[in-house]
């Protein structure tokens, strides 16, 4: 049984450090190999036809840009105004809009989406079971949640294990699968040894 009061361990993280955020290989996607690896993954995870995609905790919009380049209509949400400004600049001319707001309760009103894309955000949020219920409610019938998460660090690990995330999702969705990502160094700019994965769930 998962405690609804479980909280992520993101204390001390400066989510408004937009100036240096893209320096990380998997954030800025400046390396062509890293960019191509994420583009291939998004092709597999997102609908094959142009769709409405909600990118929560979108940061500077790197994944939103890849999705928009595939013809998707992207709405990005991030708590940091500086991140949102960079995302808007990065996707200028694309079918993408960005809103400042909380990823846990995004300010999208009655809008509904074909896919909700969230990378490295759920582990930071209080009450992940409640958050997942809310996110699944933002999807149209047959829509999918794409959640990229992991467990990082050895002395004081932070994150959310894949087994726990799938257990939280099973009551909410009709199908769920886990794609391991630790063995794909191109995604991260080099080899990694910690747990990294994506969960793709269909409502």
SSE blueprint and pairings:
Elements (H helix, E strand, L loop, with lengths): L17 H4 L3 H4 L3 H14 L6 E5 L5 H8 L3 E6 L2 H10 L5 E5 L12 E7 L8 H9 L2 E14 L5 E2 L2 H8 L5 E6 L4 H4 L6 E8 L1
Parallel strand pairs: 1-2, 1-4, 2-3, 4-5
Antiparallel strand pairs: 5-6, 5-8, 7-8
Describe this structure in words.
The protein has eight helices and eight strands. Strands 1, 2, 3, 4, 5, 6, 7 and 8 form an eight-stranded mixed beta sheet that branches. It is of the alpha/beta class and 203 residues long. The model is unreliable at 1-13 (pLDDT under 50). It has helices spanning 18-21, 25-28, 32-45, 62-69, 81-90, 128-136, 162-169, 185-188; strands spanning 52-56, 73-78, 96-100, 113-119, 139-152, 158-159, 175-180, 195-202.
Tell me, what's the shape? globular
Query: What integer value in Å does the Rg equal?
Result: 16 Å
From the helix content, strand content and strand pairing, which structural class follows?
alpha/beta
The separation of the N and C termini measures: 22 Å
């Amino acid at each position: 049984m998962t405690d609804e009061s479980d909280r992520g361990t993101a204390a001390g993280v400066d989510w408004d450090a937009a100036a240096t955020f893209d320096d990380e290989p998997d954030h800025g996607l400046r390396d062509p190999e890293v960019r191509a690896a994420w583009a291939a993954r998004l092709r597999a995870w997102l609908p094959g036809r142009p769709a409405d995609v909600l990118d929560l905790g979108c940061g500077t919009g790197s994944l939103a840009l890849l999705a928009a380049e595939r013809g998707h209509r992207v709405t990005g949400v991030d708590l940091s105004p500086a991140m949102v400004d960079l995302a808007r600049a990065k996707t200028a001319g694309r079918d993408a809009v960005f809103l400042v707001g909380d990823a846990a309760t995004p300010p999208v009103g009655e809008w509904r989406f074909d896919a909700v894309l969230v990378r490295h955000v759920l582990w930071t949020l209080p009450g992940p079971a409640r958050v997942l219920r809310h996110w699944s409610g933002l999807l149209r019938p047959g829509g999918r949640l794409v959640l990229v998460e992991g467990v990082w660090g050895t002395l004081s690990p932070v994150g959310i294990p894949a087994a726990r995330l799938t257990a939280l999702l099973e009551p909410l969705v009709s199908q769920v699968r886990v794609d391991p990502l630790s063995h794909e160094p191109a995604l991260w700019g080099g080899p990694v040894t910690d747990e990294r994965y994506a969960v793709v769930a269909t409502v």
